Amino acid sequence: MIRLKHGFVACLLAGVLLLSACSGGSSATNSGNPNAGQSDDQLIYKKKCISCHGVDLQGRAGPSLQNVGSQLTEEEIYSIIANGRKGMPKFEKRLSEEELRSVARWLSEMK
Ligand code: HEC
After folding, report:
1. Domains of the chain by range and CATH?
2. Do residues 73 and 48 lie in contact, with contact meaning Cβ atoms separated by under 8 Å?
3. Is 94 touching ligand 1 by the criterion CB < 6 Å?
4. Which of the listed residues 73, 80, 97, 103 should we mutate to test ligand 1's pocket, taking the one with most ligand atoms within 8 A of CB?
5. Is 0.85 topped by the overall pTM?
């Protein structure tokens, strides 16, 4: 009985670990590998942002970013990505400074 219980707890733990490993997303940091000619900013966007902002930046749960560059400066975009805002999660711990910069710069060109 005790062994069974242990097995169950271990299973739960493994599940939790797996889940957090999946959503933690440290995998975006292999910037030395230019994937099929796509730049880092777009790769980061695909991995972290597409679910809320859509495949073509058209917006889903989050607003469209298609002309975000004409509304916000690169600095403002950086700060929103880093610190979050309302429904927008913060990414300061999930992306490196460099990654935040490159996504912000890329989005600031969307006009
Ligand atoms: C969980 C869903 C979600 C994810 C993931 C997400 N966003 Fe957002 N984002 C939002 C929402 C919701 C808003 C609107 C926030 C508000 O109303 O203040 C937003 C707002 C923004 C804005 C400001 C747009 C504007 O017009 O003011 C930018 C820029 C942005 N997101 C970039 C990103 C980037 C870059 C990523 C990936 C690193 C990302 N978002 C990931 C939900 C998300």
Report:
1. 37-111 (1.10.760.10)
2. no
3. no
4. 80
5. no
